[in-house]
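Homework-ish question, so no full write-ups if that breaks the rules, but can someone show me the predicted structure for this set?
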Amino acid sequence: MDTIIQQLFNAAQLGAVYALIALGYSMVYGIIRLINFAHGDIFMLGGFIGLLLTTRFGWMPFYLLLPLAMLLTALVGVTIERVAYRRLRNAQRMSVVITTLGVGIFLENLVRLTVGPETRQIPAGLPSAPVVWLQQHLGAFVTWDKLLIILISLALMAILWLVVNRTLIGTAMRAVADNKDAVPLMGVNLNLVIAVTFAIGSALAAAGGIFYGQAYSIDPYMGIDLGWKAFIAAVIGGIGSIEGAVLGSFLLAGVEVITVAYLSSNLKNGIAFGLLILLLLVWPWGIMGKPTLKKV
Amino acid sequence: MKLRTLALLPLLVLAGCKPTAKELKIGVSAPTTGSISATGQSAKNAIALVQDEINAGGGVQVGDKQVKVRFILEDDEDKPESTATVFQKLINQDKVLAIVGSYTSKCSNAGAPIAEASGIPVVSPWSTNPNVTKGRKFIFRACFIDPFQGRVVAQFATSKLKAKTGAVLYDVASDYNKGIAEVFRDEFTKMGGKIVGFETYNTKDTDFSAQLTKIKGSNPEVLFLPNYFNEVPLQIQQARKLGLTAVMLGGDGWDNPELVKLGGKVMDGNYFSNHYSPDIDNPVAKGFIAKYKARFGLVPDAAAALTYDSANLILKAVATAGKADSKAIRDALAATVGFQGVTGNITYGGGGDPVKGAVVIKVEDGKFVFDSAVNP
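A: Not a homework solution, just the prediction itself:
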């Protein structure tokens, strides 16, 4: 069956976008134990920044546009952290969670008012011709943009892994994740580490938003649903774990696509989330998550 | 509210004092303000045209004398609660014989029970939800109902496109989409076609690739997408990117300029059913379109055309009844056979839903072009 391979590509593309969002949830949670509910809307904003860049600067090639949009969205992410979250870092947990919800609603309405509520697509920056090799050898009709979205996403995840595991700032991030209170005593600038985390998370979400706008569509409220899906993927994988976020995302997308392909599209969310609840019963901390012990 | 009622009191007194046998009053409830005020404006234009036409000829023939007609138009703001107020005002204060309106189904459903209880016949131009007329004796409509479109498209697919296999992808969370999809499935099968895929999604979903890939596996000749104009172009785009070559079909949910704005080239060569098309070959429609264009400088939309037909249906029923009596007008309306309107021939087969044709529109070079008329 040629459609099996095509379905795998569908799942990979969806999973790649989930992963780009889920990483931001997971990294921020890993470092400051904050669930940033505005993150889905950062993803949306990234898509709209990509849309504005393509419509204003039509000459800009995709390989320039993508990093630029990622940079701009990273700046927005850092600004939000500086303005809205930093002062609340030591406040009670609930206050800052409510603030993240508020920031999300603010971003949705900002985009709705400035760009409009309509569904839009980011004009094709990637070629949409079918990949001939896949068609001839596997009988699968897969377009280049789908393949490239999957490959670029995987490359971004690989770069992230290298940054976190092989650089100084990455070491600092892991140190903060390990013990937020001890790290500043070693002379590490805690604010800088947190800002960098928000920047990386927002930039990855922006890439996800642009890919989503190319492959599917964008609208000011898309961050709500997709944000939830990615958040759930991060929890399944083990929130706080980078590898877990990626694994959880591809797993969620895979289950969704397979349910539609071989069971029923009516049951998509029911089966996907039912299975995920079962997974959490087996691994309460997520597949790659570590149980956190409360220090007394 | 109180103030408004007070302000209307003198009118009530005046209306009570002056017998109005010289003039026949028909109410209109239309959303001339609010989110769909463009529809209300179309209604207002069409009503002005009908009133001038009938009065230029001396009025409507009632029994042995001619009586001038006055349409009383009230704004229902596309809100059910305002529609209820408007219906009450038209019936109790203006003492209208019949009402044209309202437009969206939610408003018609708010106004209809009031008219039904007072025994005032209503013709809604634009409310396609089946419930509007269900179980009601005095409520009619000039448009077809949602499930009918499913049949129209099935007929078009099997007889005009000669399709043997078809598939459906629809929003399972919306009554409109679901209703049309199920009727299409049943009718297409009855007409000898085979449904090889029947897939769903939920409102706000944007990734349809898993469903479309599954549909591609069964290789249908037509794919029916009875969804709204903001989703359809994305569905077609994703389908084409997955190598699906089927002809795409849809319903009146496609009828909006956004469809082509969002979809661009990918929309070309696909078809959808609609109430009416400005380039339809029908003498009544041609006359109406010419007059409308000359007076308002616009091509009339489906709402304008249906309003024109609704008002004329009532006027014809008054003439047939031969007396200015709501009950008699209702009976004459129910007995309407072969009324020639802008939007096709209208016959009421017992209930308030007309037996009438639809048009199929083809998208060509980003434009909506009349393709064919389908009669039941």
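Now go work out the reasoning yourself. Hint: The two ends of chain A are 57 Å apart (CA to CA).
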